[in-house]
Amino acid sequence: CHYVQLLTDGITNKLVLCSNTYQDGSEEHLLVRIYGHKTDLLIDREAEIRNIRLLHTFDLSPTLYATFENGLIYEYIPGNTLSAEDVTRPEIYKLVAVRMAKMHKVQDSNTQKPRASLWLKLQQFVDLIPDEFQDQNKNKRYAEMKFSKSQLLQEIKQIREAVSDFVMPVVFAHNDLLLGNIIYNKTKNEVFFIDFEYACYNYQPFDIGNHFAEFAGVNDVDYSRYPKKELQLDWLRTYLMEYKGKSTVSDHEIEVLYVQVNKFALAAHLFWYSWALIQAAHSHIDFDFIQYASIRLQEYFNRKTAFLNMELPTGLL
């Protein structure tokens, strides 16, 4: 390995790019991912490796070269991670919609009747939130949120009830499709997804709603970037055409999914709020996880009433 570069995008793990240039001028690159401290509390690493191998058989993930005690080595995908501007451009977000639909059609032959992981995983996260932090500054800022675990459980219960009657498929979902996990290769005009740590079977509208919430970014969060209805409907039409394998889908189908997706975006805020508090207790990465938790919680309450008041369209599909 002639050249090593520490990439700083991730807020869960450390990522190292290794490059080699041969005498004939050709180059070879690979990525070494070193797991973040205590992230095994949050992530089933064996399941992640199974996911990468499964998705690779459908040409939906990079090649996995090797695994080791606290990390893995995989293929480098050339391109750039999406910016907040990129993801609003139809020629790019339609590629993302199609790619997600392809992933959602993946079936694991080892799973007979897939079950959505959302509520179980969220409960696990809530259980892992510390009652107090060793760092007094973190403790003080957490207390200032005035949001207890019992209040969090109440909110989760309310969202769970709000989506309990939805008719929706359980799909093989990425569950963490933030902008940094989408690579755009301009030359090939393709997008690729990376980092399948949280991938598992889940509710279809959760994966989409979670992605829409990530339009806001991570380091410089701006929720005014949450996609407007017009963009969402166009995205969802593209997605459903690929997912259903049809050249047309009805406005009714799109409106149903639109309502489902936005309600599940609320669940995504509670999911990553809980995740951020666990990271605040354990992570060695230089990132303000308490602030991030606070921002997710604030946005949850900002959107809660409007999203819960959305009603599914009546009439037949």
TrEMBL record:
Q: Which UniProt keywords apply?
A: Lipid biosynthesis, Lipid metabolism, Phospholipid biosynthesis, Phospholipid metabolism
Q: Which family does it belong to?
A: Belongs to the choline/ethanolamine kinase family.
Is Membrane given among the entry's keywords? no
Highest taxon in the source lineage: Eukaryota
What is the protein name given in its UniProt record? ethanolamine kinase
InterPro entries xref list: Kinase-like_dom_sf
Q: Which molecular-function annotations from GO does this UniProt entry contain?
A: ethanolamine kinase activity
Task: Give the EC number.
Answer: 2.7.1.82
Source organism of the structure: Cryptolaemus montrouzieri
Alphabetical list of Pfam families matching this protein: Choline_kinase (PF01633)
Q: Name one GO biological process term.
A: phospholipid biosynthetic process
Q: In which pathway does it act?
A: Phospholipid metabolism; phosphatidylethanolamine biosynthesis; phosphatidylethanolamine from ethanolamine: step 1/3
